[in-house]
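Form 7-S
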Amino acid sequence: MPIIPVDFALVSVIFPPQSPLPYGAAFTFGVGVATPAGLTPASVATIVKNDLTSSGMHNLWAASVTPSKVVVKFGPNDTGGTGEAAYTEAGGETGATGAAATSILVRKNTSFGGRTGRGRMYVPGQSEGAIDAGGFIQAATLADAQTRATAFLNDMDAHLGGMYLLHNEGGAGAALPPRHVTSLTVESICANQRRRQRR
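Output:
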């Protein structure tokens, strides 16, 4: 788990075991929770769930794939609270799903350079019909996914304190500060989600 400072939270969108995810899966990101005032882990989970739905992020996975919940962990890591909200939005892509490890790769971009200035989300459960023989996402599907990812990021800025990269320890054991995500980029070729499968 990354270091979660006070006024930030780690969000996990959980997919339980199902076909084609035998061990389940998740995608994660940080958010700022200093504003609006009075946020709790459960209320943040509800906001994220509602924004996932309104932005149509579920259209990034197949109709046969369904997540189960949004889990939110407030910082600091040792004492921050945890809450969740049920999230069971079936995907919007028609057709059979592909291999278990195949994911849409969404890059998290910030205004900082280097590896600490960018991150990734692996969104599981794609429809095989949206991917060509070379592993590339069809143009119409890619454009739609990009529109929805951008809308979701805008919702995070509007309804919470924005999306952030959360880091593990930096140099000399010091925690790097969270980096505000300024854009999301959906990659045109599928990625391998092996390291994000839950075991």
